[in-house]
Task: structure prediction
Amino acid sequence: MFVERGGELVLPGPFLHEKTQFRSFWFKAELERLRRLCERDFNEPSGGAVRVSPLFDQVALALARIDNVFSLSPLATKSAAKEHDFALWIPVQVETERERFVAFYLPYVFVDQPFAMATGREVYGFPKTLAHFSYPPNPQKPGVHTVSTWHIPHPGADLALAPLFTIAPTGEFSSPAGWASILSHTGELMGIREAFAPGFALNSKLAQSVLGAEVKLLFLHQVRDAEQPTRALLQQVLVASCKVRALHDVKPLVHQYRVQVHPSSSHPLAKEIGLSGGSALTTASVLVEFDFEVGHGRSLWRGGMLGTPKVNERVGSPVRPKRKIAVLGGGLGALSAVAALTDTAQKAGELEVTVFEATGHLGGKGASVRNPEARGRIEEHGLHLWFGFYDHAFELMRTVYKENNRPPGSPLRTLEDAFLPHDRIMFYHSTHVRSPSWVLDFPRRDAEVGKPAKTPAQLVEHLAFLFRSGSKILLSDPDGFHVSPAVKKALFLFATLSTLLVDQGFRGAGKYLPLVARVRGLLRNTVEKAAEGQADRQRIVFFIDLALTCLTGILADNLVEKGFDSINHLDLREWLARHGASDNVLQSPQLKIVYDMTFSYKDGDRNKPSIAAGAGLLMTLRMAFDYKGSFQWKMNGGWVRWYFHPFMKC
Result:
């Protein structure tokens, strides 16, 4: 039981903060440094019982001016105090065995009065330090914000009161996109969606959404053992919820600022968050005026008790040994699973993973082995290229190469060294076509491989665009086609219709299917005949026919709303035939490659092609419209050297 004594600086919670003016200056930090900070302060002390990781690479230095702070506890007097605090705010994700949530971690906090420092440190674990503050009274008028505290500027220097932070206006205006991004992230952290209206002015919807909303704060509460200073007498990972009681105003600070962290050997903040040169330009700055309440802390984990310094106790749960996990097989999928299981030091510390491989060597279909019966010849299986829409695979390999951290000059040092772009693909048609080979050169795209994929609706929009592009070619009446006025009218109507469908999100498309059927009939009766024997023209007709068939099926089966999985009970060719695909499409090498590259043959029999219609269609659309950088990427080396060796080094 806590002994209550007179003259204590420490007040019991919860606490009400009235008339708070909160200025937050957001800037970019280094994500990997933020991860290491979370590892050091939470994951390692708790032995992985609490796993904390940064949400993104944006952090904030925030100044809070609080006019009235007082304890709501019946044990405390009702006297109020004023307080200033200045802190580094890091948005984080927190995981335990029982829950998962987002919070803010404040590794550095500075205050201007002793009650705030003592209570924050002893009750919750705020790492608070006394400081002096200087800032412009009107936050909308640009001015310099300075925080001075007692610190050691460099090794060997004396402890002195000197500036540690300076936030100064640059004369430029901040980007509205930056404000929108930060406010959006803040809304997510508070569990509020669509609360911040365009313009960010305070409105009734915002006020109603924010009132009662919670922002969780995360702490490592430590008491040092006086007998053994390197040991903690008590350690707790605590979380406390801040509830908004009244919202008075929300405004962006329109000017851009430069955040400067001055050199300090006792306060290595710049190093810990990866702030190059100790300074950064703000991406956004926001002013919030509100009243809020900080509730009692809740313990997520406690340990390090005197006499049992190695205790790692999950609250309400006994310590468990490492979980043993067996991974069967040493191929691409197996090692990807191992990477996911051990992607953080905490997970690796909690798990004991063993890979079992019958052949005695890793690789599976991508293995490289020497055949002793063929004079030691190297035999390698597997494809030597990846398509540009392999988002998850590229992102995984980017992480693997980054963790390898090979020195400059090393072969295959980065993901970009391991892959070479390849834009050209060649198809071979049956011999009745005048030109049996068909070479396609795909244009390069600016998107970086491994970035998020487009949604199915966005892919269908691209398909509609392809049809419109083909229609424009026919509407220009190229030599030899002799496109009739009726065909031109139908093409123009359908091109206009496809634009309308895109704008409407493809809702209510069924009523337009008779028009689609009419366009297809006219194409079959006139355009295809005009293209007979002309390879270039046949290719134009082929793409229009393929795009029109896919678009017809997508609209008829309402796949944008029902999802592509709804047709997976059909084979891809069967689904295309249902929606009127010609033999030219069904027997085309472009369709055959979908089956070949996925080995989609029952029992390996080339006479039994079979691929789920929804999966095959979605893959084809991604291949055509969602590749990043280059259409294909060739491996700049064998599978073992390029893929499996980097995995083993992680």
Summary: Residues 404 and 575 are 45 Å apart (CA to CA). The chain is about 30% helix and 30% strand.
